[in-house]
Each structure stands twice: as structure tokens, then as C-alpha cells.
Amino acid sequence: MEETGEEISQGPKGGWPPDRGRQALITDFLKPQVREKEGESLPEHPMNEPFSAEQDVAEEGLPKIIVPQDAYEERLQGFRFSLIGRGNFKFISMDDIRKEARETWNLKGGVKMAPMGKGYILFKFEKEGDMAALWRRSLTRVAGHVLRFQRWKPDFDVHAKNINIKLVWIRFPDFPLEYWHEKILLTMAKAAGRPIALDRCTRATSMGSFARVQVEIEMGASRPEEIQVERRQPGMGEIF
């Protein structure tokens, strides 16, 4: 552009030259674009609701807002088959993890990965079976370094002191065969942690010496060595 040395003229109140006209403001783009026709009302949407300066105030003095429960539950559905992984990004990268997933995880569907900070990664699987297979492994190795998994949960905060979770196998030795039922075994396993699955031999009742159940426990938490099992007397309801 050639400089002429001429000063650009401004409007009588300063600002942009008169030929520029009114400039769009950011608030213009935040306004609802749906126009209300005569005799019709705008669809329900938070942007269409009138602003009110009066708001509920929490005990801490902060404004209190109640989010739409249906929208929250709809969003939760997207994380049904999600895991949280944690690795050391000093030694591995997201590209390393994606390569490992393609080459060795044997996934039946896709998986989306998103770094969350503090070494945490969100894994959103398309297939429940893929999620379950990785979760049961508890950890895997990427470029020679450990990537540890835990189940995603609502309100997960990377800055909070998160409890480390691991999967372990527990045994019920000398187990009576009439108790070899998946529902019974998973119920009993709650005494040690969160029950996940039975092993193949236990499901098939192919080993009569012990039953084995996989459970999710907190690292460092104590485990009971014995539990007391009770059931109800048929026809009487008495526990014995």
C-alpha cells in the first residue's frame, strides 16, 4: 500500500471513518438467531429466557445455578464406555499411544483419546467389549512405559487427590459347587471390592477346588481374609 501522508478522517465523535458504518459486536453473535413470528413463541432454550438479576445464592455467597438434568444425563451417556488412563508424558506421547492402540489392542471399534492434563487421558470407546478388555488388563505398556487404566466416573478432577485403583483376582477356596453361580459369586466378591468378572474356568465350573473373581480395589487398602456367608431359609425367610 502506498503511503500518501494524508491523515485518515474520522467521524465527528472520533472512532472509525463514517464509511465503515456500524461494526458488529461480539454480543450480536450471542443473540438467538430464531425470529419469533406473529402468534408463535420461541422454542425453549436457555438463550431465549429473559435475564434476571435476581439469582439464588449459595451459602458461600456464590451465584447458584441449577443445570438441566435431562441435558446432564444425555451427556453422561456419551461416557458409558470410557476409561481414564494415566502415563508419563516425559517418556511417551499421544502419538505413541495411538500407534499402540492400532497395532496391539485388537479393538473391534474406534476409540477417541483426549489429554486431560496431569498425565491423565480420556479414552472413549465405541464398543463396550473394547473398554472392558482394556479395563480388565488394568495396565498396558506403551514404548516400554506403563499406561494404567481406571473406570471413568462423573466429576473426575485431575487436580484432586485421586485414589489409585487396580484390578486383582481373589479366590474362594474349597467352594461348595451349589454356590457356583455368577450372581452369588459377584455378590460375595463385594466384600473385597467392586466385582468385575469371573474367570473362564469359574464360569465353566471346570475347576472344583476354588472359584476366582476379578475385583477393583483401592491400592493400599486392606482385604478381608474371611467372610461370613448367609442365606434365607426357603419358605420361612429366616437367615441362617
Describe the structure.
The chain is an alpha+beta fold. Among the domains are: 76 residues, RRM (RNA recognition motif) domain (Alpha-Beta Plaits, 2-Layer Sandwich), CATH 3.30.70; 54 residues. It has six helices and ten strands. The strands form three sheets. A five-stranded antiparallel sheet has the order 4-5-3-7-6. The chain is globular and about 65 Å long.
Put the structure in a nutshell.
This protein has 240 residues and is an alpha+beta fold.
Number of helices: 6
CATH-assigned homologous superfamily of the domain at 76-151? RRM (RNA recognition motif) domain
Strand content: 15-25%
Major β-sheet strand ordering: 4-5-3-7-6
Number of strands: 10
Q: Major sheet: size, sense and barrel closure?
A: 5 strands, antiparallel
Helix proportion range: 10-25%
Question: Could you list the spans in which at least 5 consecutive residues all have pLDDT below 50?
Answer: 1-13
The sequence of SSEs as H and E is HEEHEHEEHEEEHEHE
- Tell me the name of the CATH class of the domain at 76-151: Alpha Beta
The secondary-structure class comes to: alpha+beta
The Cα radius of gyration reads: 30 Å
Instruction: Give the second-level CATH assignment, the architecture of the domain at 76-151.
Output: 2-Layer Sandwich
Distance between the termini: 95 Å
